[in-house]
């Protein structure tokens, strides 16, 4: 693990301890070092020269940090250990060492990955296809360096040395890349080829081992890459959308080792990651003000929908209802001086990064997850509103899942002026509660909740007018994208009759 102060490593470290994982945290500053030590996490300071706080991937400081991290990994191998690399936004649910080492039988199918010197997670979106096809599916996606295992072998050491060297390149193709993940993905693939790597000849049908398409410069030989199973080492979409909404039970016999908080839409900072873990009950620490914290929640009534299948028409109905409910509930929370405890929010369609993908042709799912059975379901808060903007405007809120005894909420008739002292109150069915205006002191909060960013998606195969019903199309606005070769349609959840 690696962290800077304020990145939120405390909760994930606590989860790692609970899962009987003993992480070693490499701290880049004294504050993080001391905080981790106080929690009982094994920690040491990394020596560095001119790193600064710049964490954007275009900064020179970030590439220096990445090279430093990889050199630290090599030092661990040189000390005689295998090493697990874990981003600070990974929660470990159980000890993965038996899987990585594969010394006690075929633990969770580990025999299929045992031959790899380097194992890595991915951003792929179909755990079902990944489970069935192994490396032959994984090789066509993007590898994610947030969860890795490197063996203490000659090949493992050579890989780390070349990785660090490529990160420090001053010219050539590697010098133009901005992250260690980009460099890794380039290292494993043959130049100007896709996917540019493959399984070894004669490999088993479900092998998880790939041979790099490009040799290591230091050896002139390819190296073995293990594609970690999506069901066991789960990315953000795989857990926060698919796992929590699974309908067919096919994952019930498989417990993940770790969850990586990717796939957040409200930034990639600590607040967004923590909230995402809190929504599914995976954050060990409570950030509430203390034992005197009082909460207010509400219930969402079922909406009149048009289909049992996920459709954009029904998504507009439930998403608009969610935003109306949040506006109303925040007003009452302010009035009662309570922290709003937000229940799971229903949804019928996925959300894509900056609207740049076509959910319409993927059955309202994120393209790549077309065949996964997770919608209709619930979606994270940042699919509808920006928690960061609400927090900046003074809004106090937590997921209901993070509140002790969430089912013990006591009804309060706040519209009639009732007041109670219970820790958790509920407004009941939010549709039955009359609207309450924010006072003038909370105008910024009112705006932050009631004016979220529009929801957007592309129409890549044909014009949006051919994909969307006329009445749906009129609710939003269409514009050209991808250099005029496609269209993007955007809609506001607050006022369906107007364009965003």
Automatic annotation (TrEMBL):
Family, per entry: Belongs to the glycosyltransferase 77 family.
Subcellular location: Golgi apparatus membrane
Organism: Ostreococcus lucimarinus (strain CCE9901)
Matches recorded under Pfam families: Nucleotid_trans
Coiled coil: none
EC number: 2.4.2.-
GO molecular function, one term: arabinosyltransferase activity
Membrane topology field: Single-pass type II membrane protein
One cellular component term from this protein's GO annotations in UniProt: Golgi membrane
Ranges where the Nucleotide-diphospho-sugar transferase domain occurs: 22-276
Keyword terms: Cell wall biogenesis/degradation, Glycosyltransferase, Golgi apparatus, Signal-anchor, Transferase, Transmembrane
InterPro entries: Glycosyltransferase_77, Nucl-diP-sugar_transferase, Nucleotide-diphossugar_trans
Name of the protein: Glycosyltransferase
Location (main, coarse): Golgi
Gene Ontology annotations of biological process type: cell wall pectin biosynthetic process
Keyword flag Cell wall biogenesis/degradation: yes
């Amino acid at each position: 693990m690696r962290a800077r102060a304020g990145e939120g490593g405390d909760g994930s470290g606590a989860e790692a301890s609970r899962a009987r994982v003993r992480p070693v945290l490499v701290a880049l500053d004294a504050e993080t070092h001391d905080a981790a030590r106080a929690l009982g996490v094994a920690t040491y300071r990394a020596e560095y020269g001119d790193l600064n706080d710049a964490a954007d991937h275009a900064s020179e400081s970030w590439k220096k940090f990445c090279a430093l991290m990889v050199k630290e990994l090599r030092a661990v191998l040189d000390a005689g250990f295998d090493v697990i690399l874990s981003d600070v936004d990974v929660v470990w649910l159980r000890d993965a060492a038996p899987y990585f080492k594969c010394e006690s039988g075929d633990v969770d199918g580990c025999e299929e990955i045992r031959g790899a010197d380097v194992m890595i997670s991915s951003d792929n979106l179909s755990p079902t296809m990944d489970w069935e096809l192994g490396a032959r599916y994984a090789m066509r996606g993007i590898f994610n360096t947030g969860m890795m295992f490197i063996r203490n072998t000659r090949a493992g050491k050579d890989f780390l040395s070349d990785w660090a060297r490529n990160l420090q390149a001053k010219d050539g193709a590697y010098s133009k890349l901005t992250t260690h993940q980009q460099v890794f993905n380039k290292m494993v693939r043959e130049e100007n080829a896709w996917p540019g790597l493959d399984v070894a000849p004669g490999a088993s049908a479900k092998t998880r081992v790939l041979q790099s398409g490009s040799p290591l410069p230091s050896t002139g030989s390819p190296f073995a890459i293990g594609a970690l199973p999506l069901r066991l080492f789960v990315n953000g979409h795989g857990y926060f959308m698919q796992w929590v909404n699974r309908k067919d039970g096919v994952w019930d016999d498989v417990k993940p080792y770790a969850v990586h908080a990717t796939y957040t839409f409200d930034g990639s900072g600590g607040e967004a990651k923590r909230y995402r873990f809190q929504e599914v009950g995976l954050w060990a620490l409570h950030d509430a003000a203390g034992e005197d914290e009082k909460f207010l929640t509400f219930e969402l009534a079922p909406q009149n929908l048009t289909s049992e299948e996920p459709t954009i028409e029904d998504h507009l109905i439930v998403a608009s209802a969610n935003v109306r409910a949040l506006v109303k509930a925040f007003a009452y929370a302010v009035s009662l001086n309570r922290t709003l405890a937000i229940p799971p929010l229903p949804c019928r369609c996925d959300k894509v990064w900056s609207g740049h993908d076509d959910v319409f042709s993927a059955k309202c799912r994120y393209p790549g997850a077309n065949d996964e059975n997770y919608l209709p379901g619930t979606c994270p808060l940042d699919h509808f509103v920006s928690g960061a903007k609400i927090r900046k405007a003074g809004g106090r809120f937590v997921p209901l899942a993070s509140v002790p005894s969430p089912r013990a909420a006591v009804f309060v008739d706040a519209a009639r002026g009732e007041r109670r002292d219970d820790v958790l109150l509920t407004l009941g069915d939010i549709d039955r509660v009359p609207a309450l205006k924010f006072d003038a002191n909370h105008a910024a909060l009112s705006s932050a909740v009631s004016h979220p960013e529009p929801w957007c998606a592309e129409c890549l195969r044909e014009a949006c007018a051919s994909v969307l019903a006329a009445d749906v199309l009129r609710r939003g606005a269409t514009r050209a994208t991808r250099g005029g070769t496609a269209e993007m349609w955007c809609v506001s959840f607050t006022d369906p009759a107007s364009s965003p």
